[in-house]
Amino acid sequence: MTIATIRHLAIRCAVAAFMASQISAVRCETVSVTIDNFTFAPAQLTVKVGSTVTWTNHDDIPHTVVSAGKFKSKTLDTDDSYSFTFATAGDYKYFCSLHPHMTGTIKVE
Ligand SMILES: [Cu+2]
After folding, report:
1. For residue 6, how many C-alpha atoms fall within 13 Å in the half-sphere facing its CB?
2. pLDDT tens-digit series, residues 41-97
3. 36 CA distance to ligand 1 centroid (A)?
4. Which position has the higher pLDDT, 15 or 28?
5. What is the Å distance from ligand 1's center to 53 Cα?
6. How far is the CA of 91 from the centre of ligand 1 (A)?
7. CA 64–ligand 1 middle distance (angstroms)
8. 10/40: higher pLDDT
9. CATH, residue 88
10. What range does the domain containing 34 cover?
11. Number of domains in the chain
């Protein structure tokens, strides 16, 4: 991850935390999900509002991270990652558009 990317993520995290601050206290954090052997791990994850989740593909084949109407990564090749900051509470079900049996849920509270 480059310095520019880290800076970019930090800014997005701060913006999300500000947006969420009108709702409740925020603990802005970054949480990792790995993609390995056609599986999101952890598949079920609970984070605080304002958190950023970063998915990283450790498989030798491409995957995506898609939550209908919420977010959509580009195709992630080996060791590519995708981040999304959750500013709104809710259950976000997502899947890999290339392998729809790969699913996961981010619970934001
Ligand atoms: Cu996939």
Report:
1. 3
2. 999 999 999 999 999 999 999 999 999 999 999 999 999 999 999 999 999 999 999
3. 9
4. 28
5. 17
6. 21
7. 6
8. 40
9. 2.60.40.420
10. 3-108
11. 1
**For residue 58, what are the contacts with CB-CB under 8 A and spacing of at least 6?**
34, 35, 36, 78, 79
Which residues 6+ apart lie within 8 Å of 109 measured at CB?
46, 47, 48, 49, 89
Amino acid symbol at 62 = P
Degrees to nearest 5, angle at CA 99 with 6 and 74: 30
Q: CA–CA separation, 70 vs 6, rounded Å? A: 22
Name the residue type at position 105: T
Strand order of the sheet with strand 30-36? 39-41, 30-36, 52-57, 81-85
What pLDDT sits at residue 13? 54
Which residues are within 8 A (CB) of 100 and not within 5 positions of it... i.e. 6 or more apart? none
